[in-house]
Amino acid sequence: MIGSDAAGPTAIQAAFDRAKAEDRAALVIYLTATYPDTATSRACMEAAVDAGADVIEVGIPFSDPMMDGPTIQAANQHVLDAGRSVSEQLAFVADLAHLDVPRLAMTYVTIADMRGYARFADECADAGLSGVILPDLPAAEAGPWLAEAERRELATVFLASSVSTDERLAAIAQVSSGWVYAAGLLGVTGVRSISGDVTRDLVARIRQHTDLPVAVGIGVKDRASAAEVARYADGVIVGSAVIRAAGERDPDGAPDRVHALVSELRAGVASG
Amino acid sequence: MSRLTDPTAPSEEAVREGYFGAFGGSFVPEALSGALAQLADAWRAAQKDGAFAEQLDRLRRDYGGRPTPLYRAERLSEVAGVEVWLKREDLAHTGSHKLNNVVGQALLTQRMGKPRVIAETGAGQHGVATATAAALFGLDCTVYMGAEDVRRQRLNVVRMQLLGAEVVPVDSGTRTLKDAINEAMRDWVSNVDDTHYLIGSAMGPHPFPSIVRELQSVISVESTQQFDFQAGGLPDAVIACVGGGSNAIGSFAEWIDVDGVKLIGVEAAGEGVGSGRSAATISEGREAVLHGSRSIVLIDDDGQVLPAHSVSAGLDYPGVGPEHAFLARSGRATYVAATDQEALDGFRRTCELEGIIPALEPAHAVGWVLAHGRAELGDGARVVLTMSGRGDKDVDEVLEVAGFDVGVAKAFGEGEA
Question: Do residue B172 and residue A73 have CB atoms under 8 angstroms apart?
Answer without folding.
Answer: yes
